[in-house]
Automatic annotation (TrEMBL):
InterPro entries: Acyl_CoA_acyltransferase. This is N-acetyltransferase domain-containing protein.
Amino acid sequence: GGITAELGEFYIRAAVRRRGMGGETLAALLRALATYEVRRLYVDPPEGHDQIRRICARLRFSEGAGGRLSRKL
């Protein structure tokens, strides 16, 4: 139970990708959500967007039904 959140879109400009900014941004979001007593964050990556899946895997997200990713906070 408890409060959950869903990340609708996640975009890093092409010119600055592959520098770790996506992972840092998502990690900061997880920390911020935890301060508001959010219990779980859900992410539904679009088909073919493997980079967000890799970032989420590094941050210990789990894959659920339909490819939906989630992380308990």
